[in-house]
From TrEMBL:
<feature type="domain" description="Transposase IS200-like">
    <location>
        <begin position="13"/>
        <end position="188"/>
    </location>
</feature>
<dbReference type="GO" id="GO:0004803">
    <property type="term" value="F:transposase activity"/>
</dbReference>
<dbReference type="InterPro" id="IPR036515">
    <property type="entry name" value="Transposase_17_sf"/>
</dbReference>
<dbReference type="GO" id="GO:0006313">
    <property type="term" value="P:DNA transposition"/>
</dbReference>
<protein>
    <recommendedName>
        <fullName>Transposase IS200-like domain-containing protein</fullName>
    </recommendedName>
</protein>
<dbReference type="InterPro" id="IPR002686">
    <property type="entry name" value="Transposase_17"/>
</dbReference>
<dbReference type="GO" id="GO:0003677">
    <property type="term" value="F:DNA binding"/>
</dbReference>
């Protein structure tokens, strides 16, 4: 069976959750320690994380989970056309121009001006197209991958591909699948023995949430969503030396807003708010992320308990080896999952869902297949044993 079309997995006009994998060319260790040359490119992981943080402040897309590895990265994204629809024309325009400012002839015009924003707002057909793109996962990944490739190629003084090709996408069709996939992503470094526990491995969403719970803060990489006035742009071009403008621009690239934020403030909330309706966009007003909506019906404490326990049982199936803690069993049982088989599903995610266009319980996968005109999805039968 051929891989599902992107239009079958997600569309910009419909809220959906997608597991994304982007690999480096030839799976080379371009964001880690190269075993051939011995060069350490691990610092590029922070490039990727900061770029994701910046894009989370501009796009109508929630970053639910992520893990940046030495030769690939995992993301779980949720597009939010409902949030984009709640933005004013000016808000949508400035977000787009911050990410894609267009061709500039002079350096001082690198930041969008008020005139640029108003010009775009008057072009209604163009603005409607931009609203669709702001909630499109493909455009989010394009805005993430291309600048990283350019920076790495410039540093290595080379040309050509940095990423293997287009990202691989997998739609998550229910909460059980989302919980398992989120665990798989957060435990990816532990799975390949980069660290012993999620507490000790950086550049994962789990580590960010753990550190944030301790009160740790970072310098925000979010875009400053304010246009430059035409008078200020003209004044800078006439009065500020070019060298100084370059230094200011470089400083703004490191921290556009200059704010200090919680380490996980740019990530989507983990827990759903029971007091909010599913139709409420829960727009985030502070310019750090798309919305305030969570994505799992568990508390952060329950999630971390399950995550650490799953990491501790290791790669082997735990059937008959040790008793499942009562609180862990309760969380899984409430989602129709067999607690004794949980570790096998998370640690061997690729075996069961690696070639499938979607992931979730057999019933949810079947319903999604029928919706897209298929009879079934790969892995649909293989995962039946994991669900009660």
């Amino acid at each position: 069976m051929p891989r599902a079309k992107r239009t079958e997995q997600f569309v910009a006009q419909e809220v959906c959750v997608v597991h994304v994998v982007q690999r480096c060319v030839r799976r080379a260790f371009l964001t880690g320690v190269d075993p051939v040359s011995g060069c350490d490119f691990s610092y590029r992981k922070e490039w990727i994380r900061r770029r994701m943080e910046a894009l989370a402040s501009a796009f109508g897309i929630d970053v639910l989970s992520y893990a940046i590895m030495s030769n690939h990265l995992h993301l779980i994204l949720r597009n939010r056309p409902d949030v984009v629809a709640a933005w004013t024309d000016e808000q949508a325009a400035i977000r787009w121009l911050k990410v894609f400012p267009g061709r500039r002839l002079e350096e001082h015009l690198g930041e969008p001006t008020e005139a640029d924003v108003q010009r775009l707002c008057r072009d209604k057909p163009r603005l409607e197209e931009i609203r669709n793109r702001l909630s499109d996962i493909s455009w989010f990944m394009r805005a993430l991958a291309e600048p990283i490739a350019r920076m790495a190629n410039r540093q290595d003084d080379c040309t050509g591909r940095f990423w293997e090709g287009r990202f691989k996408a997998q739609r998550i069709v229910d909460e059980a699948g989302l919980l398992a996939c989120s665990m798989y992503v957060d435990l990816n470094p532990v799975r390949v023995a980069v660290g012993d526990s999620p507490d000790s491995v950086t550049h994962t969403s789990a580590y960010d949430r753990i550190e944030a719970a301790k009160g740790k803060q970072i310098t925000s990489a979010a875009f400053d969503l304010q246009p430059v006035s035409v008078s200020d742009a003209s004044k800078q071009s006439l009065e500020v030396p070019t060298l100084k403008r370059r230094r200011v621009k470089k400083a703004k690239q490191h921290s556009s807003s200059g704010r200090r934020i919680r380490r996980d403030a740019w990530l989507a909330n983990l827990s759903l708010d029971a007091g909010k309706l599913s139709s409420d966009p829960e727009v985030h007003r502070e310019g750090l992320r798309c919305s305030n909506r969570g994505y799992l019906n568990v508390s952060l404490r329950e999630y971390m308990r399950l995550l650490r326990w799953t990491a501790s049982v290791g790669r082997e199936s735990m059937r008959g080896q040790q008793a499942v803690p009562k609180d862990v069993a309760r969380v899984l049982r409430n989602r129709g999952m067999e607690a004794e088989m949980w570790s096998e599903l998370v640690w061997n995610w690729q075996r069961y869902f690696g070639r499938s266009g979607c992931a979730g319980s057999p019933a949810a996968m079947k319903a999604d297949a029928e919706k897209s005109g298929r009879r079934w999805h790969r892995g649909q039968g293989a995962v039946a044993a994991f669900f009660s």
